[in-house]
Amino acid sequence: MQKYDVAIVGGGIIGLAHAYAAAKRGLKVIVLEQNSRALGASVRNFGLLLPLAQLPGKNYNLAVQSAAIWKEVLREFSIWSKPNGLLVLALNELETTVMQEFEGIATGLGYEGIQYVDKKGLGRYSPRALNLDNLHGALYSNAETTINPPETVAKIAVGLQEKYKVDIRYNCIVKGVNGSVIETNTGTIHAERVVFCTGANWEQFYPELYSGIELKKCKLQMMRLQVPDSNWQLNEAVASGISMLHYSSFQSAPSIGKLKEYYNQNFPELEQYGIHILAVENNKNEILLGDSHEYSNHDFDPGNSAAINHIILNWAEKYLNLSEVKIKETWDGVYVKNMGGEIYSRLKPTDNSRIVNAVGGQGMTISFGLAEETFDNW
Ligand SMILES: Cc1cc2nc3c(=O)[nH]c(=O)nc-3n(C[C@H](O)[C@H](O)[C@H](O)COP(=O)(O)OP(=O)(O)OC[C@H]3O[C@@H](n4cnc5c(N)ncnc54)[C@H](O)[C@@H]3O)c2cc1C
């Protein structure tokens, strides 16, 4: 029987971040992933490391701590990233009001690098990509970084194997764990400690521990667009004014209630499908565009709704010049969210095991910070 200090169940970003934190502590680590590579939410997202989405205090601090480790990991494993920040784009005066209110309180709340940009100032950002005629202003945050998720996750896995001698076993389904004995479809593994990072498949292990936590699965629709030529550049990640209704950080802006009312009354389809706009350009001249949010306790219909993709594209065109841009592919992703307000769940089934999941829409952002906490507090 092979012996390890730590076994990680799941090779998504939460599993890999835990493998990194454990390996940095000099522990012998194995990652067990049921597929031939990571195929879950960790390779289906925007790749936006987004501290601005977090409530001030412990959540924002966790995202900032995580961003610092991300920076180190990206450098250590020579992974492409674009630390160009985020522009939240306003389509009307009410949105610019919320943005200016937020700019006024941001520093006091603990956010760094937030600046309101008026319509004239927008010209210095991605002039060809932004639909400048339609935009009223923006909020710029310099804390955000864009990565390319599939490439990044694959390179982290290789870096862990090569530099830290982490064993990563793909096509290895963990069927059960008893103390330090892990039963898989390809044999038994022994590890002193086990961390379950199984993403949306949370029901598999110790479901009874979740009895006091309301979890929901969320399906998001996404698309990949090919930019027309090298002069069409989206230098910063962009979010829509509507996105301010989705990120709890903006709840302290006095006019946020009015903005919610405005969208609910005039564009109920956005609320119905949980649509807001995020777009990032990666290192392959592609725009990742989304998204929608549909919730369920268990599972979802297999198809992606053409109507939802149509609404996403329609709204994206209000912010971006997309007339020459072609759709390359569409897909969906599922994550699990803790509906109780916490941005993750960390459970302790036994003294030698932890479950870390329910990271919702912030899993990429907080992954490395979460993993540090798990091992610091073990
Ligand atoms: C469309 C979309 C956009 C998003 N955008 C962002 C963003 O821009 N920024 C951000 O911070 N977050 C974003 N998120 C959220 C983020 O992607 C997730 O929170 C994060 O990827 C979750 O990581 P994970 O490792 O928990 O899950 P996963 O990536 O799903 O990994 C879990 C892994 O566990 C494996 N597994 C499960 N059971 C077993 C078993 N029994 N044995 C072996 N292996 C097992 C699975 O195969 C899977 O690979 C987005 C999510 C989606 C879906």
**Average pLDDT for all residues:** 97
CATH class call of the largest domain = Alpha Beta
Strand content: 25-35%
One letter per element, helices H and strands E, the order comes to EHEEHEEHEEEHEEEEEEHHEEEHEEEH
| Relevant CATH superfamily of the largest domain | FAD/NAD(P)-binding domain
Sheet with the most strands, sense and barrel status = 9 strands, mixed
Terminal CA distance: 25 Å
Helix fraction bin:
25-40%
Q: Report the CATH architecture of the largest domain.
A: 3-Layer(bba) Sandwich
Round the Cα radius of gyration to an integer and report it: 21 Å
The quaternary state of the protein chains shown equals single chain
What's the short story on this structure?
This protein has 378 residues and is an alpha+beta fold.
Question: How does this model look, in words?
Answer:
This protein is an alpha+beta fold. The mean pLDDT is 97. The chain folds into 2 domains: 1-82 and 146-211 and 343-378, FAD/NAD(P)-binding domain (3-Layer(bba) Sandwich), CATH 3.50.50.60; 86-142 and 214-339, D-Amino Acid Oxidase, Chain A, domain 2 (2-Layer Sandwich). Strands 5, 6, 7, 13, 14, 15, 16, 17 and 18 form a 9-stranded mixed β-sheet that branches. Strands 1, 2, 9, 10, 11, 12, 19 and 20 form an 8-stranded mixed β-sheet that branches. It has a 3-stranded antiparallel β-sheet with strand order 3-8-4. A hairpin with a 2-residue loop joins strand 11 (181-184) and strand 12 (187-196). The protein starts with a strand and ends with a helix. 29% of the residues lie in helices and 29% in strands. It has 8 helices and 20 strands.
